Amino acid sequence: MKNFLFAILFSIIGGFTAIGGYNLWENKSNVIAIDYNDKIKLANYIFDTTDVIVPKGLNFIYTAKVTTPSVVHIRTTYEGRNSGTGNPFGDVFRDFFGERYDYREREMPKRRGTGSGVIMSKNGYIITNNHVVENASEVEVLLNDNRTFKATIEGTDPTTDLAILKIEADDLPTIRFGNSDNLEIGEWVLAVGSPFEFRSTVTAGIVSAKARNIGILRDKNNLQIEAFIQHQAPVNPGNSGGALVNLEGKLVGINSAIATPTGTFAGYSFAIPSTLVKKVYRDLVEFGVVQRALLGITIQDVTAEIAKENDIPVLFGVLISGVNDGSSAFEAGLEKGDVITEINDVKIKNVSNLQEQIAINRPGDKVEVTYIRDGKTKRIIATLKNTLGTTDVVASNNNFSFDGAQFSDLSKELKEKLDLEGGAQVINIEKGKWKNTGITKGFIVTSINKRAISDVEDLSTTLSQLPKDDGVLVEGMYPNGIKAYYGIGW
Question: Which of these CATH numbers, 3.40.630.30, 1.10.730.10, 3.30.70.3280, 2.40.10.10, describes 180-287?
Answer without folding.
Answer: 2.40.10.10
